[in-house]
Design a protein that fits this description.
Length: 434
Amino acid sequence: MNWPADFIWGVSTSSYQIEGAVALGGRKPSIWDTRCRTAGKVANGDTGDIACDHYHRYPEDIRLMKELGVEAYRFSVAWPRVLPLGKGAANEAGLAFYDRLIDGLLEAGIEPWLCLYHWDLPQALEDLGGWTNRDIAGWFADYTTLVAHRYGDRVKRFATINEPSVFTLFGYAMDWGAPGIIDRSAHLRAIHHVNLAHGAAVDALRAGVTNAFVGAIHNRQRIVPQSDSEADKAATRTLDAFWNNAFPEPQLLGSYPAAIAEAVAPYVEAGDMARICRPCDFFGLNHYGPIFAKADPASLWGFAWGSAPDDAPKSDIGWPIYPDMFRDELIDLSRRYRLPIYVTENGCGGRADKGNELDDQHRIKYLGAYTAAMHQAMAAGADVRGYFVWSLLDNFEWGSGYGNRFGLVFVDFTTGKRTPKASARWYADLIAGR
Ligand code: IFM
């Protein structure tokens, strides 16, 4: 496969999943620290307290990236590290950590792609209502301004919010993520306030950073009814609205999808849609595989995750593998939003207990099939400019704790030792060979 000379190859991570050091350098708790301390919410009682200890080991991680030959590294800033209470006084020690990281990346010739929010909301803001409080748009704008002024001389690539549909749905409708509330009004308010925060952050980045390149990151995937029943098809349409369209549609086209517009309307004030729909420079796509949906009258919105057909190819953690759907998603996205697309996450989950984690041929097969599908999409006209593997390192996989591993690099969580897997060599060869 020939790739354009300026195509960007990278890797992605996020703050809570790798940094550790949750109580060091002035950082205060996030909603994920709280969730990890709530019995039964995270497999095995795992926490992000130490995670990959990236806070201390970041120079080694930069070296690993250099060996891979990646040109770009997408990471997130932990809001509670730089603004421990979410607003008010900034924390110099926390800000200095990202200075060191960014400077190290630039010295290694790796471009930093900074994501402002990857789910670790300061607990102090949650205590004020978190995403259900409309004031959060202003708090997020102030946080963004702080980040923009501090790093904007060296960082130009910014994403506002990672996978808004995932953390709002899991956090406010299903109790699969923090803060673990199940409530329709809370869910709808969170959706609208996340959208307002995105718009405010785009404006703050434009104001604070010369030549900022700004977008948001959405997890989009095909939602497939588990059966031909009308009930499963209706559930699929509702999940599609919440999962795929509740954020890109208002952010990029200025309106909520019809399936949820009426429900969100009570929270929308005059001028809001213009505040949300601000010009973006790129579409960040996170994609893994399709979701099979089914009706579930007992759930908040009448849908639930169903099962993929028995003969569907699946990863070791059970996620269905359909590269053709990735190709089609890229083509559709490119046509609908007319923005350059960067695949900001794609990867394959494995389990240490399968015994194939260092010689991870399953991951190589997955990444090979998905990059080939991306190539086909580009040949069909999709404007895809870059691809980031999720993830550089095995890390804290939210409710699954450390059991599910997505890294190109194996992490021994008792010692912190990093060992590149076969997939790391495969990715390095792909990058070198283009
Ligand atoms: O680990 C997550 C990441 O935080 C968001 N996107 C999906 C990944 C794999 O589940």
